[in-house]
Amino acid sequence: MAQKTALIVYAHQSPGSFNAAVRDVASQELTEQGYRVIVSDLYAMNFRANATQDDIIGDLKNPELFQYGEETMHAWMEGRLSDDIVAEQRKVEEAELIIFQFPLYWFSVPAIMKGWMDRVLAQGFAFSLEKMYNNGIFKDKKAMLSFTTGATQTMFQPDGINGDINITLWPLQNGTLHFCGFQVLAPQIFWSPAHCPPMVRTAMLEGWRGRLKGLLAEKPLTFAPCELFDLSFQGGFLLWPKVREERESQPYGITTGHHLGKLLPPDNQTRAQPRDENKPDCKN
Question: Residue ranges under compositional bias (Basic and acidic residues) (predicted)?
Answer without folding.
Answer: 273-284
